[in-house]
Amino acid sequence: MPWLLLLLLPGTVLGTTFTPVTSSSSCTSGSYLDTATFSCVACDATTQDVTPDGYGCQCKAGYIRDFNTTSTTAPNPPCIACTYASDSLRLFCMTCDSTTTGFDTSTRECTCATGGLVETDQAGVTRTYKSCVTCTAGSYLSGGVCLPCNDPLMQASTSTCACNSSYTQVNGATYNDGVCLHTATTTDMQTNYPASTAYTVTYPNVVSAAGTTTSSVTSAVLERWFYEAAVKCTREAGVQWCQMLANMCVLQMYLESSAACAAWISLTAALTTNGFTGWGTGIGFLYFANTGFLDDIDGITTSYSFERTDVPYTDTLDMRLASYAFNGTFLGWHNLTTQLNLCGGEYDRVTKWTGYGHWQLIECDLDINRFVRANDTVFYDPYFVNTDGTLYPMPVIIANYRDSSNSEPMAEYDEYFFQKSYGASARLMRRFFLWDNLSGRVGSTTNSPTVVRMLNTAGILVKTQTQDPNSITPPRLVLSYSEIDITDLANSTVYNIQSQFGSAYSMTVGDGSFGDGYSFWFPIVLVSGLVLLGIRGYRWSKANRPAQATCRELRIGLGLLFRTVSHLSLIHI
């Protein structure tokens, strides 16, 4: 079958070889790349120019497309001449009205003594004639229409926009792009946090989902927004800019040497609000001053009880989440119920952790495509709600946090989310996300991410106070994230990570370790249980005096055991 062999030979079609053109830049001037045959095709030199992307022809000024021609050999569509000018889309022929200086036959366009040409009315409808107008301040002429400059601090001439005095254009090289930032503040920011490092995001624990591993990227999100957020937060342009800067620091996993976190710390180090250093009015709160807040005995005023006769009676943990979009917009308050449990499940079952003293662990395999291909990252600040309605900012422990020596001082917790001690480099945080599909975007803020982060462990640890077991210290969230390179991972391809959510309790006993507390209480609980079981069994046997145990009586005995255990389950470490 020789014809089959011909089909299998690369670059061979029915015995005729060809050399494909790989890019439009390979074509000579006046020719475009035909993506159907991967060859160069010449545009008509009289009536057409090559399109800006190099993949077709467009009509020159004074010509419009001729859709009545059906030729398949000429570059489509061909162009025909107008008596005077043509519109910018090359669809209609137009005349020059009295505001113009007439028609220039060499350029085949209407001309203006001042201002520029417009071809639409105020509703955007194309007219039959062109007029000369001068666009108002803050707008420029493009394609026959006056358009607003990209930033309110820009002023425009006929076709360009430029920032006002004392302001510098950033994040854009053309008149319809970029923003105007205060020059002196911008210079300080660019000096202290140069662009060469300000946009870099590292992923030290990254794994590959489809064969590619990228440990750092130049983030398009930070490239677009870092300087604007940092400068505007410094200039007190609005709380949302400070919240956006905070979100960029969180995307850096609180790395204090990163530009976003370093800028945040410099802005907040001297501030104090509600008794917390680093919390500023109109700016926000990211870092606790030290880990001592884990043992704060005054912040949580709620007293818990297992007896409904106690006044006041409270047996539910009440926590709230303040949520923010990446751009700093406040999205509102939400009760913390199922958000940290990404495995799902029946609502009543997965929210049992909200009952005081309830231990819970939920595990599953999680397909990351369900989340990272979905909505953009949302950021959360957790608060504990006291019975009097006051809020206490809950500490967040990020296991992925790395200190200046590149160590992870918060990653030594056990299966109960407990870590015996924290070194000097440990930091308690405030804000977290469930997944990060923003920081890994490269080239454009709208591109799919190269690397994503996904919450793999979420634990709520409640510690009772040593002197008062009915009172607690601030509950802490313990979080850990997976970092996955999803380059070449198809949307339909399943990629699972292990995910778990749980709640646990601790009490300081002995040297303060969780293990000592367990070792101390377990024998007491066991002996108490056996004694209580013996007493119940003795009373039952005395009342019933069975001659021989039956299946029914065995069931009753087991019931006594289970009821005893259920009573003892009210005692927790």
Descriptors for this entry?
disordered C terminus, 573 residues
Query: What's the tally of helices?
Result: 10
Task: Report the sheet-strand fraction.
Answer: 25-35%
Number of strands: 36
The major sheet is characterized as:
7 strands, mixed
**Any idea what the radius of gyration is?**
34 Å
How would you describe the shape?
A: elongated
Distance between the termini: 79 Å
Class computed from helices, strands and strand pairing: alpha+beta
Helical content (DSSP H or I, runs of 4+): 10-25%
Ranges where pLDDT stays below 50 over 5 or more residues in a row are 1-15, 511-516, 563-573
Q: Round the mean pLDDT to the nearest integer and report it.
A: 83
Which oligomerization state do the chains in this entry correspond to?
single chain
Characterization of the model:
There is one protein chain. The longest helix is centred in the last third of the chain and has 31 residues, at 514-544. The strands form 13 sheets. Strands 22, 28, 31, 33, 34, 35 and 36 form a 7-stranded mixed sheet that branches. Strands 26, 27, 29, 30 and 32 form a 5-stranded antiparallel sheet that branches. It is built from 10 helices and 36 strands. The chain is elongated and about 115 Å long. It has 573 residues and is an alpha+beta fold. Mean pLDDT is 83; it is low at 1-15, 511-516 and 563-573.
